[in-house]
Design a protein that fits this description.
single chain; globular; mainly alpha; 234 residues
Length: 234
């Protein structure tokens, strides 16, 4: 019997469909590695430093935050702190994914490298443990390989590509993640949490260091749940 881990009412999803969806996300987001490679090279990082960030850090938002802070004149420690705070969210993803994937202990340290926005979104959209594992693995592998290849290509071709804003590559990752998230917001409470999180994140962006607005946006969930509880008690 197939074990349902996300929604016991959902039918089993064909493996081919899971692979297709996961590859779509991996390819779409992986191409934005071009933008990171160009941005990193433009911030003064060497080719080796740029590629090392993608290989070892592998979380686009933190990587962009780091090179963005350096480009703006921030010190290495400040830039690293902002990237760290932005990457903390992956630890919370890992808490949930560890239950869904139920991987052997020997595999978990390697799987942790792929715990990011996109792999989490694809995994959570699956109805069974088998499809969760397939979605996570295919998304993580395709995105990791393509992100690192395009990071290298972007760093090497920084002069030829020019302004990344004109290409819009830096928006590819967030756009794909929002497209995955939107269909999962089915209740009023979930939509309220998402809406408040957006307001907190964007509103605090001009006044707080890089990475902190994302953490502050996490306060949306307890605030909305508290307000709902107060309303139900009346």
């Amino acid at each position: 019997m197939t074990e349902a881990v996300v929604d016991t009412r959902s039918p089993e999803k064909p493996d081919a469909a899971v692979v297709r969806d996961a590859l779509g996300v991996g390819v779409a987001v992986g191409l934005s590695g071009f933008a990171f490679g160009v941005t990193s090279a433009g911030s003064g990082l060497s080719l080796l430093q740029t590629c090392a960030l993608s290989l070892l850090v592998f979380t686009g938002a933190s990587q962009f935050a780091l090179v963005g802070a350096l480009a703006a004149g921030g010190g290495p420690l400040t830039a690293a702190a902002g990237a760290f705070f932005l990457g903390v969210r992956n630890a919370f993803y890992g808490l949930r994914l560890s239950q869904l994937l139920a991987l052997p202990r020997a595999v978990r340290p390697f799987a942790a490298q792929w715990v990011i926005d996109e792999t989490t979104a694809v995994a959570l959209a699956q109805p069974t443990r088998r499809s969760v594992r397939i979605g996570f693995t295919v998304t993580g592998l395709s995105l990791y390989v393509l992100w690192n290849l395009t990071t290298l290509a972007g760093a090497l071709g920084a002069q030829a590509i020019g302004d990344t804003d004109a290409w819009g590559l830096d928006a590819a990752g967030p756009a794909v993640f929002l497209a995955l998230l939107a269909p999962m917001l089915r209740t009023v409470t979930e939509r309220a949490v998402a809406g408040l999180a957006v307001l907190l994140g964007l509103g605090l962006l001009p006044v707080l260091p890089a990475g902190v607005p994302v953490l502050a946006a996490a306060l949306a969930a307890p605030v909305v749940l508290w307000l709902r509880g107060r309303r139900e008690q009346r």
